[in-house]
Every structure is written in structure tokens, then in C-alpha cells.
Amino acid sequence: MSRWKFVGRADELNRLLSAATGAQGRGLFFSGIAGIGKSRLLREVVAALPRETYAVSLVAASATTAALPFGGLVQLLPADQPPGLSPAGILRWAVDVVQHQAAGRRIVLAIDDAHLLDPPSAAFVHLIARADNSTVIGTLRDGEQLPLPIRALWTDGLVDHAELSPMCPADTAGLLAAVLNGPVDAGSADRLGRLSGGNPLLLRELVHAAAGSGELTSTYGVWKWNGRLELAPSLTELIDTRIGQLTPGVRAVVELVAFGEPLGLQLLAKAVEPDDVETAEERGLITVVRDDRRLDVRLAHPLYGEVMRRNCPVSRTRRLQARLAALLQEVGSRRRDDLLRVAVWRLDSGTAQDGAMLLDAAVQAFTRYDVPLATRLARAALHAGGAFAAAELLATILMFADQPEEAIGVLDAVAGDVRDDRRRSRWLTVRGMVSYWGLSRESTVEEIATRGAGLTDSADQARVLAFEAIMRLHRLDLGLALRLSRTVLDRPAASVAARELARCTIAHLQAAQGQLRRSATAIELTQSEAARWRTDMPYLQLALELARGTRLTIGGDLAGIDAIAADEFADLAGAGDFRLGTGYLAILQAYAARLRGQSDAALRTSLGACAVLATSRVYAGLAQAERAQAAALRGDAAQAAEAMAEADRTHAPGMAVLYPWLEQARGAALAAAGDLPGATRHLAELADRLRADGFAGHEAHVLHDLVRLEGATTPVGPTCSDGSRRTVAQRLTELSERVDGTLVPLLARQGRAVAAGDTVELLAVADDLAGLDLVVWAAEATAAALHRLRTQRSPLVGVARERLAGLLGRCDVVRTPALRAGAPTLTDREWQIARLAADGETSRVIAERLYLSARTVENHLQRIYGKLGVTGRTELRAALRAIPGHDGGPVD
Fold first, then answer.
1. Are 700 and 747 in contact (CB under 8 A)?
2. Residue 667 counted as domain residue
3. Which of 334, 428, 446, 527 is the most buried (most CB within 10 A)?
4. What CATH number corresponds to the domain at position 49?
């Protein structure tokens, strides 16, 4: 595999650069474990130092030169040493050679693996560090014996010493994306990062092994690792070398921890000798960490466990797992996940005989959204005689594992066991869920309504009604969905899960209608009851997040989106491969990034959502619509059109309630392609449809899209009594009194300002939008004001231009029609001249570079000043920064 790109480590890189170039001459040594990236960091700094200012020497010490006098400096000193010199004389000669080679420049001596320096070379490094015109930087490996002159570097105050920590998750994901030439699925990046322990060398070996075995695949340009780990021989050898030879007792410690981590220290002490535990800890094979009042034992590196588990014979593996289960059952379950751990050990060791325990463990795994583990345990529970309860749970989990056909088969196999109303209600709702959302059979709604009517128990009826209500909502039977949901809430006998599912249906509908405060109250009530419904209906969280996401997006609450993306559910869903959860949250994150102008993150995150949801019909169309929006934001009309085609292909008819998002994205795609009349017509028709459906919250956003396209005076809605129709701006004003929150009144102000040509109000609106972090909308409002101010030759042009430049400076690539319409047009030649002039080049220099006459350059500059509304070069750079898509940087 070729050399990897250098990614991340910005703080460490800057710190080492500052040490090398600082005026005080104090150097810096980074220490760390092998493969952590010390050498690469040092080489990046060496490559960045200008040779005209610094005399830079890189010395790579090694075990082969450690036994030779001055062997570590073989790359630095001449081959022939002067004869007859004492050891001290040779040192002085070596220092003189380096000073002579520097020729007056400041000396920077970089030592890689300084712990391997021979004594004379180490003494030389210490002497150089003491020179007034020298700085020494370097790397050390943890746990190695250091030459005394090297250790004295920081004890004498000549250099600083710091530990190089493992790469953070963000840097690991960035490195993976750079190496694979594309973004990596967040779950895959997290798992690879945890397995490598943030060690770039181990990460490289993992990626090499995964790429070689076909475990890394790309969907919609996003790389995903399937989670299997085929260890390459080089990686196994590397870990084996670090583990070394083990005594039987120490091996028993490491193996038990490998199969049981985190393992309580007291539990481990019951199975092995305490001396062996101490030896394993001293050798750096295990670590003991405090978790609340308990001491847990973990392996020092995740890959140690992989190697130990791979090398352990099957018979011993099963014996160890059975021993762990027996130990934990002997001391009794004390933690929430102890049941889960015992069930897995029993299952893996072939000693699982208690179907009820397996079923309880499967429920617990599902409540933690660990879909693969829950599936495995539920299957085992069914095979162990779990009958109906196990089949119901397994079918439910299979639905969320994108295996609806198998789920239907599991349910039909136990149809004969449905002997009472309680089982019938549960069987009907699970089968209805799989049929409606998993297989996209819309007739399921009528089927579940008909069969549910035959139930006699009020609680059982309520469960079926709650499911029918949310299905009705999703296919836009809005009035009936609301009535059914209220019926469930009015029934005292209804279970908590049924009541809260019904409440989520109402909360979603209220958000779409613009009743954001009522929606928030309903969502908070459902969330407060989570502990009571999660065991029965963990997937209710999806309905809750859909309602909450609808409310936050309509309210423009980007901070709220950030909060739910950082919530426990996001972590659990990501770790447990709960794709509907991670996919939907990724869509929300892409939305927030898009409105902030972070188009790179928006496109990358929406592509990730498309990849995660590629095998699911529930949110696949929504993910593609958000991808279309992100592409349109960047002016990528081709990708926006492609994404909309995929949205149409993958959108499930049973998710019709999501049509506002898809159709709004279609308007953005049309506008990005330059079809502004088509986009305006489409959005106006969409606004009328939303008005008819009572979706005032969505309607306000669509009307705002029309304002952004200079359509504030476009007629919408029905004809009034006087034969006229309301304009977009007038309808937005009406909605500002109906839709809760601060956003829609702000959008209505923008609509009125655009219709009236009120530039002062537009700038005020832009400031308020920027205060809500809605940077793109703020930039567009500012650009609209700037365009009008230029036409009026107003003295406020400079103020507006500076504001626009500042807003665009917070964005990545943003090329919306609203920004393009208000931007002055420069020819390629004018752009070249403007960039050079903004960099301070004189007309004569510009003329020489572009092979023009000085008079021609001056004529061009005058035209440029007129187009940009500036009077000279002092205002030119800000004016260029205020042109979307251009950064005002130097000409190549």
C-alpha cells in the first residue's frame, strides 16, 4: 500500500513547528507507542521548514547503528573523521561541521527514535541543543531506556517533552476518507478507530486487510466496512510481537479478559492467580480502570483481543466462555448488562438451555438498539422453545434489519399459536408493521383495521388503533389518524406504549401544521415515559425522532438538531447498526449543515445517509432528497437531478407524509439547473397542496423558497372575493400568525421586504437569520439587499458588501440562484485582473503577467470598479470575497 496522506494532528503539528521556529530556541520531543505517528509528524515538520532560513537535518536512529560510535549521525557527518582526536575533540569537530554547514542559518536538528542513539551521538545532540542558534526536536518510543544525554534535554530545560496521544475519532475518520478517496460511514470509521486504538500504523494494517478481502465496499461514494475482521499476516505478526511469549498463567489472564472484557477485577481474581494478573498489567497487556465503585480489567489494545480470540482453539474458547458465564452467575448480576453478557457467553459456549433467559437478553439488546445481537439472541430463544413471544420479537427485529420477507415467514409460522386477543393484537401489529413499512403494502391499513375490530379487550384494541393511526398519518389520511390517536389517548386501559405511539402521531401532525409548542409538549411527555415503553416497543423511538425532527426543522432550530444528534439514542443506534435510526439522524445533520452553509459536510452526510438506508424503503427517498438539496446548494445540478431520480425510485408510497421534503428538494434541483420559471411554478403548486393538507409549517418554508427566488409577489392560494389572489409575501404574513416560533415571522418580514424593495429591512432580517445560524439564508438576504443598493448607488453598498463577505466566509462552496442573481458578473479576464489588483499588484506588473498594456489594465479596472460598486483597490478584496464561489485569493 502506498504512503498515506498526512491528515489531522493539527495541534501537534503546530506545536512542533512552533518549537522548531520559535525565537526562544526551546525544542520539543514527542513520545508515544510504536505506530502512533511520531515519525510521520516529525517528517511533516521537517518538510515544512524553509531551507533558506533554517539548516535542517533529519537523523533517523536505528537498532543497527546503536552499537556504533556516532552511528546515529551517519546521515549527518562526513565519512572521514580527522585522525588523532580524543572523544571530546571528535564531539567539538562534529559540532563545528554542523555549524559550518548551516552557513549562518538557524540549525534545526530533528532526531527520530532518539532512544536508539549511541552514547556519542546522544552527547552530540545535547551539545547542539545548548547552542544559541540551534533547536532540537525529536521522537521517543514509550517504555524504552533513554540515553542520559537525551533524558537531560528536558531535565536541563533545553526542550519540552510531551506524550503523543492516539488520533481522535475525527482525525481517524479524516485519515480514512483521505486514504480511500471518499467519506467513510460513521459507524465503520468508529469501529476501525476503536480497533486501531487511534494508532495510524494499526489502522493502515486494518484497512489493508479489509481492502484486500473485499470487506470495504462503496455505496453512493461512501465507504462501509462490513465488520468482519480478516487479520492480515503482517498485522497478526505485529500484534504477536507486542504480546510476546506468555506463561500459562498470564495467558489465562489475557484470554479471559479477551473473551470477557470489561471484566471485574474481583471476578477475574476468582478464576486466576493474582500474581499472573499483576504480571499481565506490568507487561502492558491489560489495564485496570475504575468504573464508578468497581475496578474493571480491559486489554491494553483492542487488537490484542482479536489476535487472542483468533489463536484460541475452539474447545478452549467454549470452555472459557462457559467459565465466564458460571462465574458471573455465581456472584449474581449486579449491572444492567450482566444478563446480556451471560446469555452471549452461554450461547457461544453451547451451554444455553434457558429460552426465557435468551428471550430476556434479546429484549435487552433490542432496547439498546443492537440489532445484530438482538437478532442472534431472538433466534436462539425461538429455537430453545420460546414459541410465540420469541417469534414476535424476532420478526420485529428482522423488520429493522431489512429482512421483512423472513419476518413475515416467522410470524406466519406461529399463526396457529394466536389463541387469545392479547396475542392477536400483538401479532396483527407486528405483521402490519412489517407488511406496511417493510414490504410497502398499503392495503395493510385496511386489513389491520378490519381484523382489529374483532378484538374485545380495550387495551388490545388500543394497541391496534395506535398502529393504524400512524399508518394513516404516513399515507395522509390525516383526519382519521388524528381521531384514532385521540381515541387511544382517551382509553384508560391503553398500554403506555400504545398511548405514546398515538401521542407521537399527534406530535408529528402538530409540527407539520405549525403547532410547534403543542408538538414540543407531546414529545416531552413521550420522552418522559421512555423507561416504561422502551422494553415493549423500542422502535417507538423512531416515531418520536420523526416528530421531533419535523418540529426542529420547521422551527429552524439547528441547535436542537445538534442536541439530538449527540443524544444517547444516536450513540446506541450507531453502535448497534440500527440503520433507520442512524440514517434519519444523518438526514437531520445534513439539513443543519446545509442551512449553515457547510456544503461539504451536508453533501458528505447526506451521501452517508443514502448509503446506510440503501436497503431500506422507509427513509431512502428522504435521504436522496436531502442529497439533492446539498448538491443544489453547491450548484451541482447534475448530482441534484440524479439524486431526485433516486428519490423517486426509492421513496415508499406508504411514507407519503414526507412529500413536502421531496417536492421542496425537486424545486431546488430545478432552480440549480437554471429552470427558475419551472422551479417557481413547481413551488407555487406545492404551496397550494400544502395549504390544502393543512401543513402550514411546511407551507411557510416552501413560500420562503419562492421569496429566495425573487418570487415574493407570486400569486398563491385560492382566488379572493374580489377576484385577486394573495401574494407569497401576504400568505407568509398570514402564516406568521399561525405557525409558532420566531422563524416564520422572520421569513414573513423577508417576504415583505423583498416585495417592497426595502434594503434596510432586508439587512436587518439577514442579521436575525445569521443570529439563528441560518447562514445561507442570511447571505441570500444580504445579497438581495446589496444588489438593490448597487442599483441605487447607495452609500450602504460597502456595509452590505462587508456583511456578505463575512457570511460567505463562514460557508463552503455555496452557489444558489439567489446568490448568483445578486452577484456582479466578471469576465475571466476581469476576474484575473481583479484578483491580482486585490493582491496589491501594480497595473504594470499585472500588464506584464497577462501580456496586456498598462492602459488596457487600467480600463479594465475602471469597469470592474463600476460593476462591483467600489471606488478603488482598498475595497476590492472585500468585494471579491462577496462574490459566491470565489475566495478572493491570489491568482495561481
1. yes
2. no
3. 428
4. 3.40.50.300
Give the three-class secondary structure for 314.
Answer: helix
Contact present, 537 and 502 (Cβ < 8 Å) = no
Banded pLDDT at 28 (limits 50, 70, 90): confident
How does DSSP assign 335-356, residue by residue? STTHHHHHHHHHHHHT----HH
Quickly state the pLDDT bin for 891 (edges 50, 70, 90): very low
- Cα separations in angstroms, 789 against 585, 763, 783, 797, 798: 41, 11, 10, 6, 9
Instruction: Give the model's confidence band at 501: pLDDT under 50 very low, under 70 low, under 90 confident, else very high.
Output: very high
Do 530 and 623 share a domain, yes or no? no
3-state helix, strand, coil in the chain (%, to 5): 65, 5, 25
- In sequence order, the 6+-apart residues with CB closer than 8 A to the CB of 572 are 368, 369, 370, 578
| Residue 54 amino acid letter | Y
Helix orientation angle between 421-433 and 444-452, rounded to the nearest 10 degrees? 170
> What distance in Å separates the CA atoms of residue 420 and residue 342, rounded to the nearest whole number?
33
The one-letter amino acid at 491: R
Residue percentage of the chain with pLDDT more than 90 = 44
- The answer to whether the beta carbons of residues 263 and 257 sit under 8 Å apart is yes
450, 524: one domain = yes
Evaluate the CA torsion angle 240, 242, 247, 248 in order and state its sign.
Answer: negative
- Show the cell assigned to 457: 379487550
- Residue 889 counted as domain residue: no
Domain that holds residue 180: 169-230
To the nearest 10 degrees (0 to 180), the angle between helices 38-48 and 10-21 is 50
Give the integer Cα–Cα distance in Å for 141 and 147.
12
3-class secondary structure, 196:
helix
**Residue 24: which H helix or E strand, with range?**
none
Asked if residue 430 lies in contact with residue 411, where contact means CB atoms within 8 angstroms, the answer is yes
Contact 183, 574 (CB under 8 A): no
Grid-cell match 393504524, residue found: 468
Residue 441 buriedness (CB in 10 A; 0-12 / 13-18 / 19+): middle
- Among the three residues 210, 230, 250, which one is the final residue of a domain in this structure? 230
Length of the chain: 892
| Interacting residues of 521 by C-beta distance below 8 A, sequence separation 6+ | none
Question: Would you state the cell numbers that stand for residue 13, as one nine-digit string?
Answer: 503539528
Which residues, in sequence order, are CB contacts of 157 under 8 Å at separation 6+? 26
Quote the CA–CA distance of 507 and 681 in Å, as a whole number.
31
Amino acid in the structure at residue 883: I
Among 504, 538, 572, residue at a domain's last position: 538
| Grid cell in block for residue 281 | 498489567
226 and 96 share a domain? no
Query: Residue 858, exposed/middle/buried by CB under 10 A (0-12, 13-18, 19+)?
Result: middle
Phi, psi dihedrals of residue 232, rounded to the nearest 5°: -70, 150
Q: Kindly indicate the confidence band of residue 646, based on its pLDDT and cuts at 50, 70 and 90.
A: very high
